[in-house]
Amino acid sequence: MTGMRPASFGAEPTGERLARIQRSPQYDMSAGGFRNPPHAATRPPGEGNSRLEMLRALLSRKGRRPDAPLPLQRPDLSTPPASGLRLTWLGHATVLAEIDGRRVLFDPVWGERCSPFAFAGPRRFHPAPLPLSGLGRLDAVVISHDHYDHLDLPTIRALARSDVHFAVPLGVGAHLERWGLSPDRFTELDWHESVQLSGLTLTATPARHFCGRGLRNKQRTLWASWAVAGPDHRIFHSGDTGYFSGFADTGAQYGPFDATMIQVGAYSDFWPDIHMTPEEGVRTHLDLSGGAASRGALLPIHWGTFNLAPHPWREPAERMLTAAAEADVRVAIPAPGGSFDPSAELPVAPWWRTPGAPAASRQEAGAATRPAARAPEPETSGRTGA
């Protein structure tokens, strides 16, 4: 603990890190925090939504958690993908992307709860499908923003024992340093800045969300979506975001994408600007693809692991199936731990309708242990450097 601030809260940016943040085009000096891109609203807040109504909705338990163990899969990562691209959904927003001989891990969360406390807060529906050590070599870890369900202290500390390099938005490095990572282990990026790692180009791109881990949210760490380009393939991870018109610009500048990983869970009319519905997720995929429904595959993320919103836990998958079919979008909805090649046949069997198949034990699948990882020296580019 630094003073009275628990380690799980991380640290506020100071010194040159704060000065760089304040130079960002995304930073509003008058407000003292980062601002969102212009918003193209697709749904207004629900009329009459009060704090009391929101609290009642969040306290309701009807359909919010599975009533039986989920059918986890144990991915086979022993051989490289024949096409050069494979995605493995490990629950919530955590995805392992194998791209052109490299391995990128997005928003890794192996902790039991997405909370600053080990004894309270949203608890996982299912254990992680495999331990961190089962991932094998990693070339990069990418963090979209500093919320607890995307930046997990025990997972970061486990990954810190390897030499893998982190790509994070501006300000997030303050948390990483407090948790034991030296500055040469991570690169902080503003929107449209890039870092080169193992022959991949990782670029932070705009998103519409917010940040913060403590009781006082100063909005001094940035949130981002991410474009990753290899020699032969390109992929996109949305992080957390509300829908906005800038996704078309991201697609035009950094696409076309062979696969998109799009947040489609934890939405609500109580907060329509910061999380997308499945229908908005499909629209985002189309925007990123220049309106070409047949281009690339969509992996819905940010659902099926934590109870973070009033909707039933199965609802994002059901709505995604319908929305993708209506838009003729290729969608993959694997069970946690499921892998797929975006260019091949995609997993769409509705496993969530009949949970109850044996799940891996927590001791075997959920342990956060040391990964075998490596990291090259990064090279950065962008408006303000790294």
Secondary structure category: alpha/beta
CATH 2nd-level architecture of the domain at 83-347: 4-Layer Sandwich
Mean of all residue-level pLDDT scores: 87
| Number of continuous helical runs | 8
Mind telling me the C-alpha Rg? Answer: 19 Å
Low-confidence stretches: 357-377, 379-386
User: What proportion of the residues form beta strands (DSSP E)?
Assistant: 15-25%
Domain Metallo-beta-lactamase: 102-303
Protein name: MBL fold metallo-hydrolase
InterPro entries: Metallo-B-lactamas, RibonucZ/Hydroxyglut_hydro
Region (Disordered): 1-50, 336-386
Short description:
The protein has 386 residues and is of the alpha/beta class. The chain has helices spanning 15-23, 51-59, 153-160, 173-178, 247-254, 278-288, 315-327, 362-365; strands at residues 27-28, 33-34, 85-89, 95-99, 102-106, 140-142, 166-169, 186-189, 194-197, 200-205, 225-229, 234-237, 259-263, 297-301, 339-340, 379-381. The protein has a domain at 83-347: 4-Layer Sandwich (Metallo-beta-lactamase, Chain A).
Explain what this protein looks like in three dimensions.
There is one protein chain. This protein is α/β, with parallel strands linked by helices. The protein has a domain of about 260 residues: Ribonuclease Z/Hydroxyacylglutathione hydrolase-like (Metallo-beta-lactamase, Chain A). It has 8 helices and 16 strands. The strands form 3 sheets. Strands 8-7-6-5-4-3-15 form a 7-stranded mixed beta sheet, with no helix packed on it. Strands 14-13-12-11-10-9-16 form a 7-stranded mixed beta sheet, with helices on one face. Helix 3 links the parallel strand 6 and strand 7. Helix 6 crosses helix 7. The longest helix has 13 residues. The chain is globular, with a radius of gyration of 19 Å.
